[in-house]
Specification:
alpha+beta; Jelly Rolls; 16% helix
Length: 199
Amino acid sequence: MTMLRHPANGQADLFGQPLLPGLHQAENFITPEEERALIAQIDAVDLSPFRFQQWTGKRLTRSFGWSYDFQTGAFAPTEPIPNWLQSVKARAARFAGIEPADLVQALVIRYDPGAGIGWHRDRPVFEHVVGISLGEPATMRFRRRLGSQFQRASAPLVPRGIYHMAGEARHLWEHRIAEMEAVRWSITFRSLAHRKEHH
């Protein structure tokens, strides 16, 4: 895997500095063949439009392991993470430096044209966030409030790449993904905040 490192202004450098403390990325985490197979599996899943209270988003999602209902706030176990995600889950856990068993939730998303994600932090019930990008490239934008202004940064999400958010990047910064112009897919694994962490 080729490591991606970015300084605070979001531009690539040669000094090995991460974009944000707690954010780590790598290119070529999976092969093109694996990418095509994962896309086919996601498209074969019964995906549903994302809903937040009375609002319906354009992205299509499906949760495994644990599900968070943004309309009711309910958080509960759901259908187990399927076998076709187990191998990539184990590899994602190794990348994040945690045990595969700690990644108890998987979220698959299809972003059709016009779909994106607004500013947010992942729910506090989750701790580690490990994402894999498929299809079209995207940019994850970060911000945190400093007084009356925002400090901002951007990280590229390259096809077949992986990212891991923990610590400051996970808890102190909000992130978003701008609306897509072409189809993109993603797989996100999460650990629960109350589980013992392994490093």
